[in-house]
Every structure is written in structure tokens, then in C-alpha cells.
From TrEMBL:
PANTHER family in the cross-refs: TRANSMEMBRANE EMP24 DOMAIN-CONTAINING PROTEIN
Annotated family: Belongs to the EMP24/GP25L family.
Record lineage: Eukaryota, Viridiplantae, Streptophyta, Embryophyta, Tracheophyta
Record protein name field: GOLD domain-containing protein
Residue ranges that the Swiss-Prot or TrEMBL entry lists as coiled coil: 147-181
Length: 228
């Protein structure tokens, strides 16, 4: 009985290790600081490679900017406004907001690819730098576990097991995605190798034909000139 318990404990520990290991390989999420140049009206974008049917949740806000004039006159910092646009891999507009100092966007991905979030400062905002904080959460990190716990009336160990279950499902989906991508890359590689082989054969055939035509032309020329 004690031996079976030890085996179960070791299996759980091993499962937790693999869960945290694979989750560490998942796309990073968390707070990102973006610096925008107001004078140059520059645009900076953040992209993330996301699979389909994944929950994405993000919050952003503008940090109060302090310019040189503000420091000289000791005036309170200003909150410049920014424009935000989020697009899908196929160019679909998922979120757009102008003259914003704070906001958020949430959606469930329907396409696999690189999702882009772009920020730029509106005109006439001064010359100071604008700091934008973006809290980007994907997948399990975007799940509101407190809401899930209240809805399903679970807590403590049950809630932790539910988190582990979601982590295992995510890991399984990531492994399937990696397998599909590897299969697609192998197919592309095989098709490319086949095309290169046919191109080599065609090049060799063209070289042989051209050499034969050159030999025939030179022989005809020498015969005509009575050199041979």
C-alpha cells in the first residue's frame, strides 16, 4: 500500500514537472513597456504567434509623460492620448480605438498566425516620450479562475487540479500543433527536393541537347569549309 502511494506521488510530481516545463515553452505573456516618440508620430507594434480557438485578453494604459517644459514650470504630468489597432493574421480589424489613455481588448482567435497590436501617438502631443503599458495574456493566463471557481463551486485542491487539467490540455494541443507544423514543413521540404531534382534533370538534358547542337553545327561548318 505504501509502495503504491509512493508511485502515485512520484507520478504526480513528474506530471507537474512536465506541465511547468512545457508551459515555460509557451508564448510569453505579461506586462510589456512600449516607448513612443510623440514628435515623430512613430508607430510601434507587438506581434504574437497564436493558434486558433485561443482566448486573448489585454489591458493597456498610458503612463503620464513629463516633458522638459513640465519640469521647468513644475506643472503636473500630462496624459497624452494614443491610438490602438489590433489585427488578425488575415488583416481583420479586431480592436480599434482613438484618443485613448486606457483600454482593453479581448477576443477568441479564429485564425492561426501572427496577431498584431499597433500603438501610435496622436498629433500635437508635444515632444516628450510616451510610455504605454500593455498587459497581454494568452490561453490559460487569460482565464479568470476566480470566476470559474465561483461558477463551478470549486476551491482549494479541486481548483488546482482544474488548472492542471487545463494545462495538460494546452500542452497536448501545443504538441499536436508542433506535430502538424513539422508534418507541413516536411511536406514542403519533400516537394522542394522533388522540384530541385526535376530542375537538375531538365538542366542536364538542356545541356546535352545544346552540346549536341553545337557539335552538329561545328561539324557542318568544318565540312562546308572543307577542313575535314
Amino acid at each position: 500500500m505504501l509502495l503504491e502511494l509512493q508511485v502515485k506521488v512520484k507520478a504526480i510530481v513528474l506530471l507537474l514537472f512536465f506541465c511547468f516545463f512545457f508551459l515555460s515553452l509557451s508564448p510569453p505573456c505579461g506586462a510589456i513597456w512600449i516607448t513612443l516618440q510623440a514628435k515623430a508620430t512613430s508607430t510601434k507594434c507587438v506581434s504574437e504567434e497564436i493558434q486558433s480557438n485561443i482566448i486573448v485578453l489585454a489591458n493597456y494604459f498610458v503612463v503620464a509623460a513629463v516633458g522638459a517644459a513640465d519640469l521647468h514650470h513644475r506643472s503636473p504630468p500630462r496624459n497624452p492620448t494614443i491610438s490602438v489597432k489590433v489585427t488578425s493574421p488575415y488583416g481583420n480589424n479586431l480592436h480599434f480605438k482613438e484618443n485613448a489613455t486606457i483600454g482593453k481588448f479581448a477576443f477568441t482567435t479564429t485564425e492561426t498566425g501572427s496577431y498584431l497590436a499597433c500603438f501610435w501617438v496622436a498629433e500635437n502631443q508635444g515632444n516628450e516620450e510616451v510610455q504605454v503599458n500593455l498587459d497581454w495574456k494568452i490561453g490559460i493566463a487569460a482565464t479568470e479562475w476566480e470566476t470559474v471557481a465561483k461558477k463551478e463551486k470549486i476551491e482549494g485542491v479541486e481548483l488546482e487540479l482544474r488548472k492542471l487539467e487545463e494545462a495538460v490540455v494546452t500542452i497536448h494541443e501545443n504538441l499536436l500543433n508542433l506535430k502538424n507544423r513539422e508534418s507541413n514543413m516536411r511536406g514542403v521540404s519533400e516537394r522542394t527536393n522533388a522540384r530541385v531534382a526535376w530542375l537538375s534533370i531538365m538542366s542536364l538534358g538542356i545541356c546535352i541537347v545544346v552540346s549536341a547542337l553545337q557539335f552538329w553545327h561545328l561539324k557542318r561548318y568544318f565540312v562546308k569549309k572543307k577542313l575535314i
